[in-house]
Amino acid sequence: MEITSELFRKAYEQMSDAVFLLQGKSEIITSNPAANRLLDQYEVNLDDFCTFCNGYTSNFEERTCLGCSLRKRVDNESFQLFLNLKVGKNIPFSASYTLIDEKAGISVLILRNLTQQQHTEQLLKQKTMTEYVINAQENERKRLSRELHDGLAQGLFSTLIELRKIKYMTKKEDYESSLSEMDSMLATTLEDIRNMAIELRPSSLDDLGIFAALKAYFKRYEQLFGIHVVFVSELYGTRFPASVETMLYRVTQEALTNAAKYADVGEIEVYLFKTKQSIVLEINDQGIGFSPDHFTAQGSGLGLLNMKERVELLNGDFELRSEPQQGTKVLVRIPIEPKGGRTT
């Protein structure tokens, strides 16, 4: 028993986590050396946490004060918060509050610095995104190479063969037939070029806006995949910043491409509307679905990651709901007045 107590005492004194033993809500009975160092470095006032805390991370925002668990002292609950260094810098911490003697009002507050963990997560995130960008670029180059070789090059080569045949023709009817054939082949080639240009960047998105660009895309999508798209929106003629319109178009494009590949569905619903606070994009299918809990970053995984990144770059919220045999919903909300006071 004495050995166990001694080990606990050593752990308490040597651990890097700051441990406060509190009487009531703010009176410090004792604290370990890490907690004492924290008090020296940070603006900490246990009587009023709002004087030193710069918000905590909720399910909806990176930093907020709404529903603060630390202020309410919710027992046995862990959460992330940001503390103010005396030099002005904000540092992320994991916090937990445990009531160990309710009658005496004694509790334990533990704070752990998350700077290194978040730095590691950020590096891994950047690595994943870099790999995605490289793979996406290479896949796009492969796709363009195949389309140029199998489509445009073949079409032009066939037209060239037909053109060379003319010098050996002696009848007017043969000339006219050959010219008609070349006219048809060149028209097909021009249509292929136009479709490739639209895939790379639809001019309607810049000229007419997101509503017209999506309408045109859905028409091509239905022809290509045979999947009917129900598009509901009252935003005809409404324009948004170019970054927002591009994001909405690419997220829709990625979601519908995934549905065509994996959902085994005959119809997709797309809703685009605006509320007082945000622009909302909702994409629903009743396909085979999947379990997000067992989702891995393979196949369409990086595509979904790309959608999420695009949305979050504009301070938006991205939500994916899916269950096996229950279909999939993609929900995007972009604030009209973004979080942090920046304009869209």
TrEMBL record:
It catalyses: ATP + protein L-histidine = ADP + protein N-phospho-L-histidine. [4Fe-4S] cluster binds at residues 50, 53, 65, 68. Its cofactor is [4Fe-4S] cluster. CDD domains: HATPase_UhpB-NarQ-NarX-like (cd16917). One of its GO terms (molecular function) is protein dimerization activity. One of its GO terms (cellular component) is cytoplasm. It is found in: Cytoplasm. This is Sensor histidine kinase. The lineage of its organism: Bacteria, Bacillati, Bacillota, Bacilli, Bacillales.
